[in-house]
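Summary for the steering committee. One of the milestones for this cycle was to obtain a three-dimensional model of the protein with adenosine-5'-triphosphate bound, which we needed before selecting residues for the alanine scan. The sequence and ligand used are listed below.
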Amino acid sequence: MTTFVEIDHVDRVFHLPNGGKYIALKNIDLKIRQGEFISLIGHSGCGKSTLLNIIAGLDQASVGGVTLEGREVREPGPDRMVVFQNYSLLPWLTVRENIALAVDEVYQKKSKADRHAIVEQHIDMVGLRPAAKKRPSELSGGMKQRVAIARALAIRPKLLLLDEPFGALDALTRGGLQEQLMKICNEHNVTCVMVTHDVDEALLLSDRVVMLTNGPEAHIGQILEVPIPRPRQRLEVVNHPSYYNLRNEMIYFLNQQKQAKKRKIQFQAPTIISRNGLEKINLEIGFLPLTDAAPLIVAKEKGFFADYGLEQITLSREPNWQEIAQGIATGRLDAAQMVAGMPLALTLGAAGKTPIPVVNALNLSRNANAITLSKRLYNEGVRSLADLKAAINASPDKILTLGIVHPTSMVNLILRYWLASGGIDPDRDVSLTVVPPTQMVSQLKAGKIDGYCAGEPLNYLAVHEDVGFVAATALEIWSGQPKKVLGVREDWAQKYPETYLALVKALLEACKYCDDLRNREEILQLICRPQYLDIDPVYVRPGFIDPYDRGDGTQPQELAGYNQFYLNQTNYPNRTELLWMVTQMARWGLVPFPKNWVEVIERVCRTDIFGAAARDLGLLDIGEDDPIHLFDGKVFNPSKPLEYLQSLEIKRQIRVEEVFI
Ligand SMILES: Nc1ncnc2c1ncn2[C@@H]1O[C@H](COP(=O)(O)OP(=O)(O)OP(=O)(O)O)[C@@H](O)[C@H]1O
């Protein structure tokens, strides 16, 4: 993406009269393309206007900054025009004079006739010719806002900034103006950032909706791509297949922020409730709306948490894996469902982040990942990895984009491994991009990505919607691969040892329940409820209960063990597997390979806690650290990880360092 505006790690700290400080914005990082329409949405007071003012140059970031076409924004300028909710027109000037004032100021070198023509063109653009001689007091709210927009556009700003521009208008006027703005932006390729509270307005106008969390320290919680083609008609937008999904995502995010705020207020009261011999029985556990959240949902709904004394468990549905990582890092979440590599990556401080020791004493699921490629590739004859390589070779100018849910997820490591085994360099021959799971299918449908590696039900959804086919499943690449784990901070585990043990035991029981196939129908109904996956069970059945069609016309595939929660030593936090992940993260430059890898693995992989839980439950066959067999015939021998790493052909520069944890 060519960056037009870059908001580069912006913090805004306000110094308060009492000597304290208020951190309104924290680490806002966003790149905007030319011609893109971005909406900023979030609850009142979260910092939307503060951010807009920083982009406008009306306010300064305390940390980081903003660049427009590579130049730093330090003060207001005619290349950025702001349209405010209250119009800001000069009351003693007419419509024409208000617009002319800005035009005369900016275009001093143009002739009077040229300036006049610009003013008249913009009066027409917003349909105000009959009112051109009227003063603001003689205009309706909608007309005043049209003047403000015309005035802003007349000086051809590079960036149009709109702060709730239609907030004060009635619904009819608002609708008309939204359509006019959309038309003007399309015709003139205007780049816009708009603050709004209105979910439908954001979806109608935007290419991307940036959702801010509540302050203090508001940050970007989620970014939604709106894959609805332009030019847009309101009715077509509302009828677009992704509209209600996107709308639900936004409402869910906003509701969740509201609840988080409430919980923060309740936090004033003592938040640690000790009972039943446990240090803390009230836990907040994060999860993502994916099929493999089943053990957490079952533990709550079937009473396994309560059986182990954990009486007050809140399952918090999170928008993406970044939010899970942040929730654990800040202590907002006690524990979370995590992608398998996340405890390790957080502990090592992957990608230059501050290391946060996180431990795993329980694997929650295995397999149920797959690689989906687009129907377009299918129609070009791509069926296998070799076909994909041939397609890439045949079009060297076109770089395919493939989605992953998080850099530390197994899907990233598995997709990279699969590509590299076929001679495709995952960093050079294709482009990998992080997409929240909830947006994977809509981005594939919109042609923004050409495929992805993800968990279920995302692969089957692409097949069902006829936008993709499954090129390889986890069972074919590495049968039994770890998928989701239970992550908690190491200091949390030390502070609440009995609680942690109870949590592991309750979830082990839930995992066992999930792998009793007689319970699957019941579990399907539980996990699809609105507060969890919020999806029609029909989309989750394939692979979970029924076999599924891969979307390539072949017979439904045998999927026994595809969603695995307990059988075949699923839950053992296997050190060999973790070490393999270290090699892959080092292979792709996410982390250095730790000289002290034994220490790192022992620290993250808490087989001692798993062993204690298994013993208490009478489980004897708990698992062991066996070598790993992958689809390309290579065997990973844990006694020589560096040799293995060096033997891999496609890789980045390997750094071998002592890692201090
Ligand atoms: N000059 C200031 N000094 C101290 N705090 C400030 C200052 N300006 C803004 N804030 C605080 O920063 C936070 C963000 O304010 P901002 O106006 O950006 O929010 P907003 O999301 O635009 O809200 P709304 O939707 O209600 O307009 C608020 O908590 C506000 O009280």
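Key point for the committee: Residues 5-248 form a domain with the Rossmann fold fold (CATH 3.40.50.300).
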